[in-house]
Structure formats: structure tokens, C-alpha cells
Specification:
Blueprint (H helix, E strand, L loop, with lengths): L1 H76 L4 H24 L5 H24 L8 H65 L1 H35 L11 H8 L8 E8 L3 H7 L1 H19 L3 E7 L2 E6 L5 H15 L3 E3 L2 E3 L3 E8 L7 H17 L5 E3 L4
Parallel strand pairs: 6-7
Antiparallel strand pairs: 1-3, 1-6, 2-3, 4-5
Helix pairs in contact: 1-2, 1-4, 1-5, 3-4, 4-5, 7-8
Length: 404
Amino acid sequence: MAKNKNTNENQITNNSRVYVFAGVLMAVVTLFNMFLVNRLHSTNETVLNNTIGSMAAVSTMNDELSKINRDVLMIVAGTGDPAMLVPEISNSFRKIEKSENDYAQLTGHSDMELRRYNQAVIFKDAYHDKIETYQDSFATLDPETARNTYIQEIHPLQVTASEMLSAAIDLGKKSQQAEIDRNERTYYTVEFIMAGLLLIAEIGIFIVARIAKRQRLALERRAQMLEEIDSKLQTSRQKVGEIALTNILTGMKNRYALDADLEERLEKDQFNIAVFDMDNFRSINDMYGYDFGDEYLAQVAEKLKEEYSDVAEIYNITGNEFCFIFNKDVPDAQTQRIAERIQATMTEYYNVFNIGVQLTTSGSIYHYLPGDCLNVSSLLVKLDNVMRDAKRNGGNAVYQVTGI
């Protein structure tokens, strides 16, 4: 009896030791697994946020460079008032400097990305210097000399700076993908090691059956959690690939997508295109704040997509400016009426954060013929100039672009 008692006690002790060992081992594995998942998620989230921040800063720089180029073109062509455009150019360069500061505060840039970015800054600075050198003298130069000066000395610097910024973004995305891939390899390596530890734990848990069942359920829950995290990471990587051509706020295609879609069509296609911009939108941001303005834009964009996606490709090219390229099956005679409907839709009453808001909208519409414009920028300049005429005449109107 004493021997059996001792045997039972030893068995109980052994079972207790197995339980304690299995419990401690499972606790260690669980804590390490949680640490690994949190570390992987945190690292990938940091990489993703840095990439998105870099893309936002560089996109702003590119947008402002395009805006500066548009204003310089207007000065060179004599279609704009230098007294109004020169301050706008200076303001755009200040915005670029702010984006440079934002970019500098971000971490995780690869050496190649920084090299391209720094080259872009050099060309941007040279572009700035050239504009300051000539902006006051363009008005006194004959048109041909002004045009040649712009083409030969100024425009190439802006194009090169934009190309370097785009290259920096591409290199940044590649670096981000490489970092995520390294994290995944580390994750699977450690998971393989952890699998061996779990096998040992399962042997201990097998001896204590009821505990084993509970632990298996816990493992299944953790496996499901890991799959959900992996799915979210894959979705995030896909969104990073799409964000370059999409306006994050409205979900519409952005200016870069417009350039890509129209670049090859300018020489061979005819189409109807229109742009619209809410009058005095800045007052909304000044009065209610940028979050309110963003929500207002999002509601307007959703309404436009809902009502006009079947007749036109819609782009949110800058701020509250929307561009419509009408489908080929829409008759030319109907585009003016549709444009007026679009203007009415944007001018409707919207309820934003329980506050009613309504702004008038101005626009311009253009029946484009092959070869009318050299590039998308000059096409948008033409549309924007006519739209500004509408705004100067009181706004709340859609003007037709006429002439070449």
C-alpha cells in the first residue's frame, strides 16, 4: 500500500510537473507570439506610415511644381497677370518647403530613395532660382524670346525635379516591400522554432487531457488571429500600390491618373472634358476647419460618383477641383446640359456634421480636338483660365472654352 501510495504520489507529482512545464512553456510561447505579432504589426505599420507620409509630401511637391509651371506658362504666354501670379508662385514654393520639412522628419528612407530625393531638391532649387531671375523680365521680352527661355532654361528643370521625385517614390515603395518581406521571413523562421516548442508542450498537455483541449482551442484562436493580421497586411500593401493614382480623401482618380489616361489621347482623339471648382471653398475651411471641409468634399465626391460615373470618368485633380472626361457615347449636344447638371449637383445643400452648407460652383467645358494642346498641363491651364473668368464674373456658371 505504501508503495502504491508512493507511486500515486509520484504520478501526481509527475503530472503536476508536466502541467506546470506545459503551462509555463505555453505561457512563454504565448507571450513571445504576442510580442512577435505586435512587433511585426508595429514595424510594418511604421514602414507603411512612413511610405504614405513620404508619398504625401512628394505628391504635394509635385502638385505645387505643376501649379508653378502652369502659372509660369500663363506669364510667358501673356494670359495671366504677373502681379497676381508671382505671389501665387512664391506661395507654392513655400508649400514645397513645408513638404520638404515633413519629408525630412520621416525615417526609414533607403539610400537610393534619399539620393533621388536630394537630386530632385537640387533641380527644384535651380528651377526656383531661374524663375526668380526671369519672372520680372518676361513681361518685357518679346513672345518668341520668352517662349524659348521657358522651353530651354526653365521647363527642363521642373520636369527633371518631378521625375526625380517620382523615382524617389518608386524606390521608397520597393524599400518598403523589401522591409515587409524581411519581417515575414523572420516571422516564419521564428514560427518554425515555436512550432517545435509547441510540440513539446502538446506532449505535456496530452498527459493532462482536459488542459490539452483548452490549449488546442487557444492555439486555433491565435492561428485565426495571425491569418487576419496577415490578410490586413496584404490589403495594406495593395492599397500602397494604388494610392499613387488615387485621391485618398475622395477615392477618385487623381491628377497623376489623369495625365496617364490622357497623355496618348491628346494627339489622336477628340473628346469632351470639363472642370468644376466650388466658389470660395476656402471660407469653409476657415470657418469650420479642415476636417469639416474634408467631409464636405467626400460627400460631394460620393454624390458625383453615384450620379455621373455612367457618363464620364471622374477625377479629383486638386483640392475641390473635379475633372470629367465624358464617354464617347455621350453626344456632344448633351455635354453642356450634363455639365450644368453636375454644377447643380455640386451646388446642392449638404448636411455635414449636422451643419447645412451650400456653395456655388463654377466650371468650364471644352470640346477637345486632336492636337489642340501639347500636354495635359496646358489643357488644364486652358480650362482653368476659362473657369477663373466665370469666377471673376460672379461664379455659379459653366463657360464654354472656345478657340485654340
